[in-house]
Design goal:
The protein is α+β, with helices and mostly antiparallel strands. It is 36% helix and 28% strand. The relative contact order is 0.26.
Amino acid sequence: MKRYGMVIKVVPEKIEEYKRLHAAVWPDVLGMIADCNIANYSIYLKDDFLFSYFEYTGSDLAADMAKMAADPTTQRWWDVCKPCQSPLATRHEGEWWADMEEVFHCD
């Protein structure tokens, strides 16, 4: 299992919409998250930043992320959510949410 933290900005005037969307995530999207070996997935909000945390339990993250990206329902979900988000200028090429470096963990 590997832990991941990611960050993105939320468009301030879209915060309530983003919260509303995530209060009722589509069941097929939740199923795809689980099918792609993602567990303990959470998104936190502070000011205009969203922080996500999840644990990856699979053995091929790239293949699982490609599977998720190819899913038509997930693509529609992302189309609904993306207008609420504003990616960081410092993210790596190809990222939407910027990956974060884990600097401390305690079980």
